[in-house]
Design a protein that fits this description.
Distance between the termini: 52 Å
CATH class of the largest domain: Mainly Alpha
Number of strands: 3
Strand order of the largest sheet: 1-3-2
CATH topology of the largest domain: Arc Repressor Mutant, subunit A
CATH architecture of the largest domain: Orthogonal Bundle
Number of helices: 5
Structural class: mainly alpha
Length: 111
């Protein structure tokens, strides 16, 4: 096998691998970016433990309701939350097992 052909095969394989993983990397970066904000990270920890409404998060975190709603939209846009309606209230929780595992890893690494 010529050196150029071997290099082409290796380069092609690496490019394919990077292309396949690019979507995964983009998703990981979006998640890391979402959780890089202290309030959003706290929201994720809270919602991973129990179902809460915007008012609950407002009282617990002491953050304006409009900001909590804005942050919740980011979680919803990434399909990370489950929503349940009860009358006019909406309750949210995080049931995505991958995010649960990620949050557990953060807890362990933060010790």
């Amino acid at each position: 096998m010529s050196e150029n052909l071997y290099s082409d095969i290796i380069s092609s394989g690496v490019k394919d691998l990077l292309t396949e993983n690019e979507k995964d990397l983009e998703g990981a970066l979006k998640l890391i970016s979402l959780l890089s904000n202290p309030t959003r990270l706290k929201m994720a920890f809270l919602l991973s433990k129990e179902e809460l409404c915007i008012n609950d998060l407002n009282r617990i975190l002491g953050v304006e309701q409009t900001l909590i709603s804005h942050y919740m939209r980011a979680f919803k846009d990434m399909n990370l939350t489950r929503e349940r309606r009860e009358g006019r209230k909406r309750y949210y929780t995080i049931e995505d097992s991958r995010l649960q595992d990620f949050l557990s890893a953060i807890r362990i690494m933060a010790r």
